[in-house]
Amino acid sequence: MAETPKRPRKTKAATKPKPAAAQKTSAAKKTAPRKAAAKKPAPKPAAAKAAPKPTPGAQQDWTAMSAPDLETLDHISRNLMQASLNSQKLMSDVMRQALAGDPMMPQTEQANNAPEFGAVWTEILTHPEKLMDAQAGLMRGYLDLWSSTTRKVVAGEAEEVVTPDPGDKRWRSEDWSKHPLFDAIKQSYLLNQNFLMGLVKNVDGVDPVAKRKVEFLTKQMVDAMAPTNFALTNPDVLRETLQTKGENLSKGLANLTRDLERGGGRLALSQTDLEGFKIGTDIATTPGKVVFRNELIELIQYEPTTETVKKRPLLIAPPWINKYYILDMRQKNSMVRWLTQQGFTVFLISWVNPDPSLKDKTFGDYIETGLFSALDAIEEATGETSVNAVGYCIGGTMLASALALLAAKGEEGRIASATFFAAQTDFELAGDLLLFVDDAWMAEIERLMDAQGGVLDGRTMSDTFNMLRSNDLVWSFVVSNYLLGRQPQAFDLLFWNADQTRMPKALHLWYLDTMYRKNRLSKGEVEIGGHTLDLGKVTVPIYMQASREDHIAPFPSVYRGAQKFGGPVNFMLAGSGHIAGVINHPEAKKYQHWVNTDLPDTVKAWLESAEEHPGSWWENWRDWLYERSGKDVPARTPGDGKLKPLCDAPGTYVLVKS
């Protein structure tokens, strides 16, 4: 343990007489600091600058430091020493595992993007006039920034040369705008960001896919280099370090160590308190029973909350890439609970979290053993031969495929209407996820699946989606957890986001290749069970929801898919993104939605004539469902029909962790 340094005794050499001129100079240097010390424990900055530089090996004079200052320095020194020792051990452990060549760790070969970068930058360099214009603009920006910073130092305020996007949360601290130094750092970064992104964005004459890939990876690089991500250039981290005497750095390193250990040497970034919720107790609490189970699904029938219900049941097929309880989070935002309150008999599929024994299950298996088995079970439970069906995200893609399969088999009546939440059936404009399906990435995904026994672990999927919004879902937590040393708070949405499921090899590789790479469903080229799937032959009424800020299923992509069906389609656009745009309880009174009963050729034309309404779209959808749900009948309780309850909701499959 370090001890507080003792004040050095004066030696005879320190009081040895000097020549008169030297005494006068020495007195001038020593008197001011002594007077200042009498008024204030710490020496003035001016005196510190005037003092001669210490010679190597000379003992530091601590006489001017107060006891609290020495104590603070001691605390900081100890915390930095502890952080240094822990970091050495941490790096040693990580390097040892990396050198061991763990086959289940992602490799970097698939990120070799030299051909794309080379093509883009070659094109940039072949147009020197554009490059010179961009550089001249950057130089003008820096000259303006220098002038603006000078005015801010002298006058206290000045107009900013460049401002961040309104939704960019990295610059929320007041220091980024009020403190001249940090304001200059912020604006300097933004100038460079706009310069680099502008060069790539404005390049012409290259393959659009290569350009999009370079844009995405350039943004990842630029985001990673933001001054907010480094301790010495983040005012919040500097303030926290002084206030906690360096404990934030020590705690942050402990958090980093914990996340690496949890990930087995691979960083498993904590976004929330993983012990903050219990499924079935805090979330997924709507009363219901599991009334059917097979190797792929548990079917939940929810308890009614009204005396009568609509005759036609409602079946929800969530994505199997996540747990279903995004639709049944907590009482205040549960869509499932709200639907029971509107008088629907609600059934929901809870997908299995597959292990290697299910690695050969196919997309067709998920339709037949999953969705169609649920339809059979609902008929046994209620006697109804037709349902209104809902598909969310990848579950919606499956539902669209199932509708086409039923149409090909002459059984389209089993689903009377279909609702799609943020679901794509045309992947031409599928957004940044298209960047993760090139040959190199596909080979790496297959390698990882083979190393894991034929399934893809949930962390790989989570990391991919987090990269699409790296500032919000990666870097903000790096700063909070590792630099500020804070513990993640309990947040239901992020708890769900961290509860990823595994993917079976046969299904996942087929889906990425067939849908994302080749867009075969929209082209009518998918074949299942000897039947070719043609969306144009699907004539049931369709309600298609999209979200304006969705980065996973972009609304222009969803709109293209809406035009593929052969029957009436009601396209509706909600505010916010892939999750909040869907899960928006009417009582929250948040966001807005746009409606337009027409379906013109382009989404731009649809938007121009759409009518905006405040708040949630759920009530608009409910009214649409009412028209297709039949008369009112006495409420159905799980177990009333031929199917008897197997267990209480939320069931057992949802509890299996990856």
Automatic annotation (TrEMBL):
- Renumbered to this chain, the Basic residues biased-composition regions fall at 31-42
UniProt feature, compositional bias: Low complexity? 16-30
Location comes to: Cytoplasm
Any matching Pfam family: PhaC_N
Tell me which InterPro entries the record gives.
Answer: AB_hydrolase_fold, PHA/PHB_synthase, PHA_synth_I, PhaC_N
Keywords noted in UniProt: Acyltransferase, Cytoplasm, Transferase
Domain Poly-beta-hydroxybutyrate polymerase N-terminal per the UniProt entry, residue ranges: 168-339
Query: Which domain of life does the UniProt lineage start with?
Result: Bacteria
Disordered: annotated span? 1-62
The region annotated as signal peptide is none
Protein name (database record): Class I poly(R)-hydroxyalkanoic acid synthase
Q: What is the species of this protein? A: Hyphobacterium marinum
Q: Which taxonomic lineage does the organism of this UniProt entry have? A: Bacteria, Pseudomonadati, Pseudomonadota, Alphaproteobacteria, Maricaulales
- Gene name of the encoded protein: phaC
